[in-house]
Amino acid sequence: MGQAACQNWFFEQLLLAGHIELSAHWTAQFSAKYSSEGIPMTNSVLVAVDGSDGGARALQYASERAKLGGAKLIVTYVIEWSPYSFNTPEENAERHKRREEEIDRATSSVVEPAAGQLAAAGIEYETIVRHGPPAETLIKLADKFGVQQIVIGRRGQSGIKSLLFGSVAGNLVQTSPVPVVVVP
């Protein structure tokens, strides 16, 4: 990210947090933003939800910021899934069936309630449910949608598991090409 893009991002954060206010003229100018390469940037934020308290806090944080700045939220649920398996064709068919059931369950129990909250608040949104490695999948979706940042909740993992494997939020912070907000 170039210096101009960093300055624009910092300015936007101050604006979204309510620390500065713009006149109607400058608000219109500001909303038609461009990257340092002259490519129009979308005013959108990818928010990762997973049904946890941390995911709910991330959605709340992102929706408050979206309402202030008129951003579109890309509400995303990633089901951890490995593409690698050594199964028979029958086992693969059963695996595919389980995968579709997981998508339906995630959509109805996590993503649709989140979408309902956003619709009630008048916030523009899009929902996505995907299978894959969570951090990698979120980064690919962030790139696909040209989001300005990713918002994710902290789950509070501790102990040996987080030391050995890390967390999705930690992996995102280290590898994401866009800013990541980790909501405690």
Write the layout of secondary structure elements.
Blueprint: H1 3-16, H2 24-31, E1 44-48, H3 53-69, E2 72-79, H4 89-121, E3 125-131, H5 134-145, E4 149-153, H6 160-165, H7 168-175, E5 180-183
Parallel strand pairs: 1-2, 1-4, 2-3, 4-5
Helix pairs in contact: 5-7
Walk me through what this model shows.
By secondary structure, this protein is of the alpha/beta class. The chain folds into two domains: 1-40, no CATH class; 42-183, Rossmann fold (3-Layer(aba) Sandwich). Helix content is 53%, strand content 16%. It has helices spanning 3-16, 24-31, 53-69, 89-121, 134-145, 160-165, 168-175; strands at residues 44-48, 72-79, 125-131, 149-153, 180-183. Strands 3-2-1-4-5 form a five-stranded parallel beta sheet, with helices on both faces. It is elongated.
